Amino acid sequence: xxLRLSTVILPVSRWHEGGRDRWQRAxxxxxxxxxxxxxxxxxxxxxxxxxxxxxxxxxxxxxTERLRxxxxxxxxxxxxxxxxxxxxxxxxxxxxGRITLGIxxxxxxxxxxxxxxxxxxxxxxxxxFGEFVPLLDRLLTEDAVTHRGTHxxxxxARNIPGCVQRPRLPFAVAATGPRGMKLAARHGQAWVTxxxxxxxxxxxQEQSAEAIRxxxxxxxxxxxxxxxxVDELDKILLTxxxxxxxxxxxSLDAFVDFAGIHRDLGITEIVVHWPIxxxxxxxxxxxxxxxxxxALAQLG
Length: 300
Hints:
The protein is an alpha/beta fold. The protein is built from eight helices and ten strands. It is 40% helix and 17% strand. β1, α1 and β2 form a beta-alpha-beta unit. The model has no long low-confidence stretch (mean pLDDT 96).
């Protein structure tokens, strides 16, 4: 099974003060995709620089030629399907068809209340996500869409001429629960996991691998229920949230071992964080570049 290696570049630098250089270097290093987080602010970076995902990806599209680009992930927390679809169609056009939309239900972070609303419960997030994804699918594949939903509406919303990628740009659906898995099975071209968050602090790598194996099995069940082959979906692991989060990037050998274990589970794409000094994502940059250029070849 072919494994791809991608990176996620957090939008923490001014474009002309290192921001552009990272995206261009990601392309030079041969990463399959460079993603960014679609948040208004995020965790320990809340009180520092943080730029918008879609403008950043637009700039990255004009600064690169081959590198795929995407969000990891966009959520309904502060997005509406009608406006998001217009921006995504435009971004897909500017990039020449290199955009992947990572999309998830959102959480309880700063985005959850930034617009002045109360944070949604897990059920409310799932309800909204269940309406958001199918409507976004329609908006990106149909010339005009009218929809009256519980949470979202559209009135003859138009997205002409549509995406460069047909029938639309791919969705990478982040999901671990049954409702999210069904959305991934029906609407996704890929599925995204960060592992089992309950294992992050006290779990072992073996427990984490077994949890991911179980997630992939449940994804297979969701696909089988609608007559879809689970092998049609890419399976993306965003690293940094499994036990011993920094260990895979500690050395080339450590990463090769980590990647081999997850490839054998069925993961088809591993995403590593671009190093950020003095943060949870601080990594020796020379080791990071060695992993980018040599790890996959060592897997065979």
